Amino acid sequence: MNTSSMSSDDIRRIAMELTAQAESGLAYCTDRFDIERFHRIGTLARDLMQTIAAEDLPAYDRRVAATAGYTTPKIDVRAGVFDPSGRVLLVREASDQHRWTLPGGWCDILESPRQAIEREVAEEAGLAVRVAHLAGVLDRHLWPHTPVYDRHIYKLFFVCEPVGDLDASFTSVETSEVAWFEVDALPELSVARVLPEQIRLLHEHWARPGPAHVD
Description:
The protein is of the alpha/beta class. It has 2 domains: 65 residues; 141 residues, Nucleoside Triphosphate Pyrophosphohydrolase (Alpha-Beta Complex), CATH 3.90.79. Helix content is 33%, strand content 24%. A hairpin with a 5-residue loop joins strand 2 and strand 3. Helix 1 runs antiparallel to helix 2. The longest helix has 21 residues. It starts with 7 loop residues before the first helix and ends with a strand.
């Protein structure tokens, strides 16, 4: 391969696959020489990723790599909550210059996707919800999110029904504001977390439930 013609995305994908191969190898191998080889691959993957990173990455950590286990995608869950007129519930993200996003976040260990999204909405919007149905299982790397991440991520989008009323004065350590918005008049979004077309996908599923969109 002519490396001079490689894009940043090409380099990122190679580094991600090398990292996954190293961590998966460390999960199973017992030969001490192979263990050192896999750590070397992990170190090289980190150095390769650094060539396209906007800031300094953490140093390669042998302990973390050795306990990571077989590498699989991380799971991010997002909730589409709508009022009777079809407005979508958004929260203002304190960690991203107060841009807006759908409530959600990472699934925790020993937590089902349903439990995760109902917890996230309660924590970020102060609203109890009940999952109605799954609207989409999306591969983050196939959508134009920025910035790109150095881990493979699946995003699960759920249509959720509010249980009770929204407290518009609610804030948390993660969110500074919560409000309803027209789907065709969205505020500035945290595009690392959600895109306008994903909100529209959720709105369509809320209006006309059907099979989930799967990338």
